[in-house]
TrEMBL record:
CDD domains: HTH_ARSR (cd00090). It comes from the Bacteria. Coiled coil: none annotated. Gene3D superfamilies: Winged helix-like DNA-binding domain superfamily/Winged helix DNA-binding domain (1.10.10.10). InterPro entries: ArsR-like_HTH, HTH_ArsR_DNA-bd_dom, Metal_resp_trans_reg, WH-like_DNA-bd_sf, WH_DNA-bd_sf. GO terms for molecular function: DNA binding; DNA-binding transcription factor activity. The keyword Transcription regulation applies. Keywords: DNA-binding, Transcription, Transcription regulation. Residues 11-104 form the HTH arsR-type domain. This is Winged helix-turn-helix transcriptional regulator. PANTHER family: ARSENICAL RESISTANCE OPERON REPRESSOR ARSR-RELATED, HTH-TYPE TRANSCRIPTIONAL REPRESSOR CZRA.
Amino acid sequence: MKNEPTPLEDLDEETLFIVSQTFKALADPTRVRILNLLFYGEYSVNEIADKLSLLQSTVSHQLRFLKNLRLVKFRREGTSLYYTHDDEHVMGILRQTIEHANHH
Ligand SMILES: [Zn+2]
């Protein structure tokens, strides 16, 4: 069983890796736009590309990145994949950071 580290203890390597990867995911304006959109609902790759004026290939590439980090998930309907967010913590961090950007 893994104990929650106290703030005085150093973080283990796995935790550091995941934290760094999480901020890397949020350190790209396109990924931020996609995650922000997926906060509000479920969209196909086409719909995301359309709403954000992005190329489908760009959207697919970024969704793969976000899927690998388990920040988004999809379900298949016919020939389309519908994506939504898959992590409440990271969506919370994103909401907080957007509020931070807007309170100045
Ligand atoms: Zn702030």
